[in-house]
Amino acid sequence: MYRSCLLIDVGNNPDRPRPGRLWLRNRYHVHQRLCMAFPSASRKAEDVDFLKPFNADDFSNGQVTVKRTMDAGFLFFIDPLPNGRAVIIVQSAIVPDWNYAFHNASHLLAAPPVVKPFEPHFPKGQWLRFRLAANPTRRLSKHSPDAKEESIGKRVPVPTDRLIDWLAHRGESAGFDITRDATTLQPGYIYFNKSDKENDKGQRLRSVLFNGLLRVTDPDAFRQTLVHGIGSGKAFGFGLLLIAPVSTVGSGASI
């Protein structure tokens, strides 16, 4: 796998935003542009200078709208930086072609993309810092206290007071335990709009940013979790688990 770092040019004045800042406000456009890094061979050969309009079929290449595996798909995470900057971390199964993706949109970038191999291997019991932007949902069943007959089977946001439980439960099968008292969360929303109509306000999705500590309990399952991502909404920047090792973690330890 590979990890790419895209530094976005958002400018330093929110009242007069650069195109990069406006681009980040619509997750649909972000995902669309990132997909362009995986052009089919025919598209790249026939449209070297990227003059043709975007067509999703030209950028499937076995990497877009597919299940994330070691050989296919990508995940991304939009990370705000100090001073109003932003970076997009992209994890992909194959090397992305960022030169082609931003051939006609280089003004969105503040620096050339950086791409590095990413081969995660962690021993059982290792402690890691983690960050995760997720779209926690649950499916209503007939036993759900808030389910009506017409809503059974639908996915709804997880209540705020159960978000830590949601992540802890996901970790049981995903190969990790979280440290509950060291896990913080920041609920919010992200927006996307597939229409170009000015009066179309688009839609929003629940977003939760988790920060904390986890311990690897099953290395094989945890590696698969890093590949597949966590939760729903992966096309909108959810699910990519960012991790970093910590030297020592114990009772009351800090990073």
Any idea what the shape is?
Answer: globular
Number of E strands: 11
CA-based gyration radius: 19 Å
Provide the low-confidence segments as ranges: 248-255
In DSSP terms (H or I, runs of 4 or more residues), the helix count works out at: 6
Question: Roughly how many Å apart are the termini?
Answer: 27 Å
Structural commentary:
The chain has 255 residues and is of the alpha+beta class. It is built from 6 helices and 11 strands. The strands form 3 sheets. Strands 5, 8, 9, 10 and 11 form a 5-stranded antiparallel β-sheet that branches. The longest helix is centred in the middle third of the chain and has 12 residues, at 163-174. The protein is globular and about 50 Å long. The protein starts with a strand and ends in a 10-residue tail after the last strand. The relative contact order is 0.18. Mean pLDDT is 83; it is low at 248-255.
What's the structural blueprint in terms of helices and strands?
Blueprint: E1 2-8, H1 19-24, H2 27-35, H3 41-46, E2 74-80, E3 86-92, H4 98-101, E4 114-117, E5 127-134, E6 137-139, E7 155-157, H5 163-174, E8 176-178, E9 184-192, E10 203-216, H6 219-228, E11 241-245
Antiparallel strand pairs: 1-3, 1-4, 2-3, 5-10, 5-11, 6-7, 8-10, 9-10
Which features characterize this protein?
255 residues; alpha+beta; five-stranded antiparallel beta sheet; four-stranded antiparallel beta sheet; 6 helices; 11 strands; 18% helix; disordered C terminus
